[in-house]
Amino acid sequence: MEWKQKIFNQLQERNRQERDVYAEIVKHYNRLTENYSTILVRCTDQERDILTLRQENTDLQKNSVSVAGLPVNDKIKTLENDYMKAKDEILTLLRERGDMTKEVISLSRLVKERDEKLYSEQNRNQILTKENVSLRQRLESAEDQLSALKKVNETIHDEFQALQLAYTQLEERQKELDATIAVLRQRMTEKIEKKCNALDEEVKLHEKRMEEDVKRKLEEAKSDFMTSTLSNLMTSTTASITHLRNANQDGKVHLTPTTDFMKVIIPKKAIVKWDCGDNELHAIQFHPSGSLIATGGSDRKIHIWELNAHNNQVQQVYVLTGNNSTVTAIDFDNENANLILGCSEDFACRVWGLGDQRLRHTLTGHGAKVFCAKFVTATLIASGSQDRTLKLWDLQNRQCVRTLFAGSKCHDLVAHDASGSLISGHFDKKIRFWDARNDSTKCELQLQAAVTSLSINREKQLLLACSRDDTLKLIELRENRVIQTFSHDDFKVASDTIKAVLSPDCAYACAGGNDGSVFIWNTTNGKIEKVLNKEHSSIVNAVAWHPEGRFIASCEKQRRAILWGE
Amino acid sequence: MSTSSIDDKDITRELWQSRLPICFILSDEDMSKVNRSESPEPLYLMLSRHSYFPCIIEKIFRYYSTYYKGNLNDQTNSINLNNLWLEYESIPLKWHYPIGLLYDLYTSSLSSSSSVSHLPWQIIVHLSKFPENELIRFPDIESIEAHYMTTLKEADALKHKGQIIGDMQKRDHKQLWNSLLQDKYEAFWNINIKLMSYTDNLQYFRYIPFRIYILDKPFMQKLFSPYDIEQNKWMTLYDLLQYTLNHEVQCEKLANEKKILNNNIENYRVIIHGVQPPLHSPIQWLSEYFSYPDNFLHICLIENQMR
């Protein structure tokens, strides 16, 4: 294909000759011609401009030449005169203007002052009107209050008068009643005297009869040698008196014995021994009338026994059930004497009615065994428990109304007064006195050992505390001070719940020991009065004194209860 | 063979990048009518060989008309676009010939000196005295575009019986002309390549579109097939020239012409696109890659000077 090559070479050669050599030159030449033509254009424009300027110049010269023809000096003078006049006028006008501005300033100042005055006056006016309005309002409200108060005053006055009348009436009535009371009292004393006299006469008659009988029997007995019947006869006399007394009661035990009939004696021997159930006895308590004994123990029941003083028999009247565990303490209420309270190791206290033997209330809330419970009033119960708290229960609401945190297991408690102040004895050797108003201890008394029981006398002055150091302490409550300590060589406190009691007249203190003996101390001199032993065979857990003072009841661990008397 | 590295595209690109430096000088009588103090300088332009003079006629007129500002409004004056004509060595230049063809034809044969260099090609611009009997007035671009399209269709008719040009859309025709005007090689050959394809299961064109120009004679155009079926060989440039000249001589003899054409190829220089291709080049290849943008092979035969 060398022809192609030849053609290509010729083409390249041709292009080189024709195009390459001349391309640049033609381009530059064209550019030069363009520049040249633009310069020409500008040149012509400038020439035109020059021409016009020259033309204008010549025109101006012509104009200036034409003006210069007039006489010059006069013109100048007149012009100067005019100029001076104008200047003077300007000066005067300026001066006037200055004066005017001064006036304007002063006037504006005046206006400002007046405005301010007016403004302040307006403000004051506003304030005063406001005050006026408020004062008027106050006046109105004061008048309203006054009228209201007047009305109230009138009504009160009327009420006062009415009350006054009523008061005078009541006063008169009271006077009348007092008179009648005095009259009635007198009659009553006369009647009682009569009764006593009658009784005395009867007794005398009876004694006479008896003497005759005795004489008869002596004669009969001369043949027998039954000297012991004498003593039996002696005791039966006293029993018949109590039978007469009990005959007043119609089966419902209402009356509590007054202190007139109380005659505290030191029992000398066991009168009745009986077994309660088949278990340990932990609590024994007399009914306030003295005719019923309640015992409780690990058989979870409270047995009520009737004491028949004539033949010195104790019979079980009924059994109260409901507890789920051992009964630890029993209390009767002192006011109406128809409720019995039992607390047990099932963390609850229960209240039964005595007439219908029905479980009235169950008081739960303690966290551990309840060791003690007492009636504060007929509707307020205090209980102390192993959970280190004391609780006050209201029977009307069936609720715990107060919880006292004692900090130590409460072994026993007594009610100090009807408002709910308590005294409690604890495991931590302290006796705590609680205030009725707040939940704190009013006072604390420290003993040498854990307190196992408390007993308070009826006048609330003396407190007997039994403690584990084998002593009893008598505490005087006015100054919270230990005044007597009772102990005996054989007296050992065996457990944390041994109960000690004061006699109803506080002459004696009684407690049971762990060997089965019952100890009686004299409170005035602190000496041991009597030791009743050989009857119980195990630890005496609790003792109770008959409200009239004639008997002591004690119960032991081995289910035996003994009534001690003359 | 090192010639295998020459791609046909290289050749067509070289052809497309042809430029001729042309100097337009105002004629003397028109120069005297210039009503400005300065006389116009000659206008130098680099024009493409395959372009046409009407494409730049606006430019030439605009350049020279600035020197006749005052006279243009005068109707009696003959300075206007219609009267513009170009001349080289007293020959008015025909509008519808490509510039390269005109250059090859006239400068090679009419040079007064024997030196080769005729560049820049100096053309004289006339703005008056239009030669009515020698030249057709050809003022606007749409006319030259129409002439171009006609030539293109004629070429396709010879090559493919007009099938391909007829199948092409109008916008492809427009693209050919516009890429010619704006000198866009890729755009032109995208369409032109379709016109160089074969139809009717032939491996060559039916007939080769060509014109042979000899000075002072109208051009010669014959039907010539690029492939001889009987002899089973490709026709060359030499064969085409020989056939055409012989055929022309025969026609002249039949017409009893006085002066018979010299049909000896040895006496001529064969110039296409300003170069002399080897006479044994295959004519099919020349038609495909060496044609002018109007798909014709415009061949100039320049008589060798008698020594």
Automatic annotation (TrEMBL), chain A:
InterPro entries: ATG16, Autophagy-rel_prot_16_dom, WD40/YVTN_repeat-like_dom_sf, WD40_PAC1, WD40_repeat_CS, WD40_repeat_dom_sf, WD40_rpt. Residues 7-178 form the Autophagy-related protein domain. Keywords: Coiled coil, Repeat, WD repeat. One of its GO terms (biological process) is autophagosome assembly. GO terms for cellular component: Atg12-Atg5-Atg16 complex; autophagosome membrane; phagophore assembly site membrane. WD repeats lie at residues 279-315, 320-362, 363-403, 533-566. GO terms for molecular function: protein-membrane adaptor activity. Residues 43-96, 125-209 form a coiled coil. CDD domains: WD40 (cd00200). Pfam families: ATG16, WD40. It comes from the Eukaryota. PROSITE patterns: WD_REPEATS_1, WD_REPEATS_2, WD_REPEATS_REGION. Belongs to the WD repeat ATG16 family. PANTHER family: AUTOPHAGY PROTEIN 16-LIKE, AUTOPHAGY-RELATED 16, ISOFORM F. This is Autophagy-related protein 16 domain-containing protein.
TrEMBL record, chain B:
Gene3D superfamilies: 3.10.20.620, Autophagy protein Apg5, helix rich domain, Phosphatidylinositol 3-kinase Catalytic Subunit, Chain A, domain 1. GO terms for molecular function: Atg8-family ligase activity. InterPro entries: Atg5, ATG5_HBR, Atg5_HR, ATG5_UblA, Atg5_UblA_dom_sf, ATG5_UblB. It comes from the Eukaryota. The keyword Ubl conjugation applies. Keywords: Autophagy, Cytoplasm, Isopeptide bond, Membrane, Ubl conjugation. It holds the Pfam family ATG5_HBR. One of its GO terms (cellular component) is phagophore assembly site membrane. Residues 207-301 form the Autophagy protein ATG5 UblB domain. It is a peripheral membrane protein. One of its GO terms (biological process) is piecemeal microautophagy of the nucleus. Residues 15-126 form the Autophagy protein ATG5 UblA domain. Residues 142-197 form the Autophagy protein ATG5 alpha-helical bundle region domain. It is found in: Cytoplasm; Preautophagosomal structure membrane. Involved in autophagic vesicle formation. Belongs to the ATG5 family. Conjugated with ATG12. This is Autophagy protein 5. It comes from Rotaria sordida. The lineage of its organism: Eukaryota, Metazoa, Spiralia, Gnathifera, Rotifera.
